[in-house]
Write a structure and sequence with these properties.
9 helices; DhaL_dom_sf; 183 residues; mainly alpha; 2 domains; 0% strand; DhaL_dom; phosphoenolpyruvate-glycerone phosphotransferase activity; pyruvate; Serine Threonine Protein Phosphatase 5, Tetratricopeptide repeat
């Protein structure tokens, strides 16, 4: 991930994702077993956003904090709840990042995968598998796109030929969720 980000930006995305993920694991392990979903999302958002001072960390962390507000009093996550969480994250990233679908950002994988979740009919694993397939297909499509936002936009047409690092990180997140569900 670092190499992919280095081709388009400052190369810190791998560090951000690793530091953020490690901070989230630590924060979640400190929560009581009976923690509510909003508490889990709040802890994850705070941990991810403060683990490494980067734009991606701020966007993801802020998205998780926004999602926490939608899950008050919930102890389980239904398909509709998962969709609500994803939509809250996407909305915050859209607003704070001033970006949209087609700008060659994480949104190019996130938003279509949420559409897939919304229309999926299978169980949780089948739905997640479909989300992963959609997100990966959209990451592949970002290769032919020119970056419109962030440091990647600075390289202009040289961004063509590289997958978007944020969208790639999102696919890795979905794959990690899938792996955890198998465990």
């Amino acid at each position: 991930m670092r190499d992919l980000d280095a081709a388009l930006g400052d190369g810190d995305l791998g560090i951000t994702v690793r530091a953020g993920s490690e901070a989230v694991v630590k924060a979640l392990s400190a929560l009581p077993e009976e923690a509510q979903i909003n508490e889990i999302l709040l802890a994850a958002g705070r941990a991810f956003s403060t683990a490494n001072p980067s734009t991606f960390a701020a966007l993801v962390g802020g998205g998780l904090l926004a999602a926490a507000k939608t899950m008050q009093g919930k102890s389980e996550v239904s398909r509709d709840d998962a969709l609500t969480i994803g939509q809250a994250v996407a909305s915050r990233i859209t607003k704070r990042g001033k970006s949209k679908l087609g700008d060659k950002t994480v949104l190019d994988a996130l938003l279509p995968s949420l559409d897939t979740l919304q229309s999926s009919q299978g169980d949780a694993l089948a739905s997640l598998d479909a989300m992963i397939a959609t997100a990966q297909a959209r990451v592949d499509e970002t290769v032919s796109m020119q970056s419109q936002k962030g440091r990647a936009a600075w390289v202009q047409e040289r961004s063509i030929g590289h997958a978007d690092p944020g969208a790639t990180a999102y696919v890795c997140f979905l794959q990690a969720m899938r792996h955890a569900m198998d465990a």
